TrEMBL record:
CDD domains: DUS_like_FMN
Catalytic activity entry: 5,6-dihydrouridine(20) in tRNA + NADP(+) = uridine(20) in tRNA + NADPH + H(+); 5,6-dihydrouridine(20) in tRNA + NAD(+) = uridine(20) in tRNA + NADH + H(+); 5,6-dihydrouridine(20a) in tRNA + NAD(+) = uridine(20a) in tRNA + NADH + H(+); 5,6-dihydrouridine(20a) in tRNA + NADP(+) = uridine(20a) in tRNA + NADPH + H(+)
Catalytic residues as annotated in Swiss-Prot or TrEMBL: 91 (proton donor)
Keywords, ordered alphabetically: Flavoprotein, FMN, NADP, Nucleotide-binding, Oxidoreductase, RNA-binding, tRNA processing, tRNA-binding
Keyword Nucleotide-binding: yes
Protein name (Swiss-Prot/TrEMBL): tRNA-dihydrouridine(20/20a) synthase
Domain DUS-like FMN-binding: start-end pairs: 6-297
Domain of life of the native organism: Bacteria
Primary role: Catalyzes the synthesis of 5,6-dihydrouridine (D), a modified base found in the D-loop of most tRNAs, via the reduction of the C5-C6 double bond in target uridines. Specifically modifies U20 and U20a in tRNAs.
Chain positions of site Interacts with tRNA: 88, 174, 177, 293
Keyword Cytoplasm belongs to the record: no
Cofactor(s) recorded in Swiss-Prot or TrEMBL: FMN
Amino acid sequence: MHKFSVAPMMDWTDRHCRYFHRLLSVEVQLWTEMVTAKAILHGDKGRLLDFEAGEHPLVLQLGGGDPGEMAQAARVAQVWGYDEVNINVGCPSDRVRSGNFGACLMQTPEVVAQCVDAMRQMVDIPVTVKSRIGVDARDSYEELVEFVGVVAQAGCKDFVIHARKAWLQGLSPKENRSVPPLNYEWVYQLKRDFPALGIGINGGIMTVESAKGHLASVDGVMLGRAVYHQPYLLSEVDVMIYQKKTAVVSREQVLLRFIEYMKNQQGQGVPIRSMTRHILGLYHGQPNAKKFRRLLSGKTVELAHLYTWLDFVTEEN
């Protein structure tokens, strides 16, 4: 299990976002948005699965609850070159629930176990699970232990646990990220009760320093929206979490490299706004942060504007 990961976030952690994040950290594990097994089997595989070679280590998160489909999709993921495939057992959205996957699968641990078993028979890469600590009325620690135990018996060796329960009725997906209280101690206790498993923690973690604190009790830490809105946090990971002696890359170095990437992607027909939207927070907390966001939010955005920005901040410094 990787010590530090960027969470899978729908509509956010696409290939352009991941490329940008990789410029900030060599070691951090990146995850795709959740992709359904059905989409992979019946849709445009290239559009859904393509990635840049530099994105490794990279996890494909799968949504689904049919063991046969999940196994076939996992096989495609391995052939495509992913390092790991993860089963989404945490998303509480109505659309996901109507497809009988996501957080509702916590109510049927045997189905998750069947998916794990079928997938492991099809691939050599790790098959992992990301879940909540509970769902609806199934929210006791004993039920969480039962879920992990059943799935682990099928061969899953690594779990990432969002330390909140999910309410499938009465709360929106956004509210499910903040209203149910955090319970880190249950995740810590899982590690004590299952010492042979890799246990990662997710939910409400806002800084690399706090992530480092969690690693005293679990094997891995995952940050999501904090990283998306303040991406320069990732520049601390290699040194603080992995004890690398590499120099921290500057915002300007990252931006220059991402401009070159965008130039290449534009040449392939990718709209510039589909890429610049991921870098709005690069100067978060800096004196010129608002000016940078305005630059990227204007009616027209051109790469020339970003070269001008680099000249401006270089003079400021």
